[in-house]
Amino acid sequence: xxxxxxxxxxxxxxxxxxxxxxxxxxxxxxxxxxxxxxxxxxxxxxxxxxxxxxxxxxxxxxxxxxxxxxxxxxxxxxxxxxxxxxxxxxxxxxxxxxxxxxxxxxxxxxxxxxxxxxxxxxxxxxxxxxxxxxxxxxxxxxxxxxxxxxxxxxxxxxxxxxxxxxxxxxxxxxxxxxxxxxxxxxxxxxxxxxxxxxxxxxxxxxxxxxxxxxxxxxxxxxxxxxxxxxxxxxxxxxxxxxxxxxxxxxxxxxxxxxxxxxxxxxxxxxxxxxxxxxxxxxxxxxxxxxxxxxxxxxxxxxxxxxxxxxxxxxxxxxxxxxxxxxxxxxxxxxxxxxxxxxxxxxxxxxxxxxxxxxxxxxxxxxxxxxxxxxxxxxxxxxxxxxxxxxxxxxxxxxxxxxxxxxxxxxxxxxxxxxxxxxxxxxxxxxxxxxxxxxxxxxxxxxxxxxxxxxxxxxxxxxxxxxxxxxxxxxxxxxxxxxxxxxxxxxxxxxxxxxxxxxxxxxxxxxxxxxxxxxxxxxxxxxxxxxxxxxxxxxxxxxxxxxxxxxxxxxxxxxxxxxxxxxxxxxxxxxxxxxxxxxxxxxxxxxxxxxxxxxxxxx
Length: 602
What we know:
Blueprint: H1 5-17, H2 19-33, H3 44-51, H4 58-63, E1 68-73, H5 88-97, E2 102-108, H6 114-117, H7 126-141, E3 148-152, H8 158-168, E4 174-177, H9 188-199, H10 205-215, H11 227-237, H12 253-268, H13 279-282, H14 285-298, H15 304-314, H16 321-330, H17 345-350, H18 353-363, E5 372-373, E6 376-377, E7 384-389, E8 392-397, E9 421-426, E10 429-434, E11 444-452, H19 455-463, E12 471-475, H20 480-483, H21 492-500, E13 505-509, E14 522-527, E15 544-548, E16 553-556, H22 584-589
Parallel strand pairs: 1-2, 1-3, 3-4, 11-12, 12-13, 13-14
Antiparallel strand pairs: 5-6, 7-8, 9-10, 10-14, 11-15, 15-16
């Protein structure tokens, strides 16, 4: 199938835009490759320190002739998605010993749960945790003793942070090993309805907690299609997972077999073997273009509009929101997974999942097939599904037809002709919006603004009954420089109630929404942010704002509104407590949302 011309054009533009930075990055990676296995260059004392606790592997490590695998783990047992990683290191060590290799846990990285910190002060550390994770993984690998690496991470900032680190050590092969989603519990739609009932005061907190516990009930990723599961999709579309491994449930024989094989595969790709495939060769411009296509075709998380840009820059590749917008205009939406539909990721996987979607997109010319992956040359590998035949792991051709067209559809009959995300531009600056879950009748909102400097102020106004007509709720001073760009998902029940009453309602903010952004139109990641004196800092209550997700515009219509001086907010309350004082240097150094909101320079 001929490559879609827009995909070809956007990819060529990314390559041209990135030429200088990508060439410099690749020069650094080739120089690192030329030095060979690093641990042979360590002093005898250095090697003794590195292998002191390696037990039965000490002798092999000292010979420096076998492949040595570094494990970076985001394990903690508070995150349901990461709790299964507790047993992975021993499984990985046993697996690589079976092929004559060795493995050590190089280090751990922090992993926080945005579900716990929603609406709390801790959310102001969430975005910054991505770059802290990258730094922590960099420290772990700085011992320079490994021939390949595996990364254990799933959730929102963890995978992007690990990808950034993997590219810093891009001369090493890298395989990402997921934990999989928890089994289905209380449906996501029912959970959302109960949250709205609580917001209306119709049920007690005890009833709310009972429902939440029925939804989040065991090990594994949350089952809605938010940032964590969007990360897993990207790792397949970009060639860093084993095919079909993203949505296999934890603590199953197939999950363990995929983990063991992923570890062996990582070592097989090292420079010691015949199939050297460093991560710098996997994550090229075409891989990132494929990732953007996957984001659009699945209606994925808005958070990846920031994370993919930051991830790409770590490999010398420069993306911008125009690339996302142009691809969204031509890539069809092929999936309906909550909040874009009623199905969860387990239902999606059973209906054909990523393998079916990748096959459809390849046949229709929406993906580059000529990419390197940890499964070999070409993305066609990712149309296959893993199975156990006895104790042996094998792959078979995946389904070529959807097993439930209410969840996943062929490219010839998509849910909509365009992707799930869109860029907005206009007098209020540049923003992004997730439209895959927004009904067509709600995609254009023109209404008076109500302006707040804090999400709690907006919720208080709702409880006081102040939102009686059409309204665009503006929550500003929520950008990365102001307070770390927290997600404002706790506003979702309130906004959904207003919309359900028949009011025209939208959110405009320089902050983020959850990866599970739903049916209420939300113009988010507004740049320039309010702290930089952007137009969002000039609007006032009553100004008429128009959000048009069809035309892709975000405008202030009231005459003279943007001639006012920018409002200055007192942000001192956001500088201390819950660890926020430790991240003052991050707030000073962070870039804008459209450049990845990262503290790392070019």
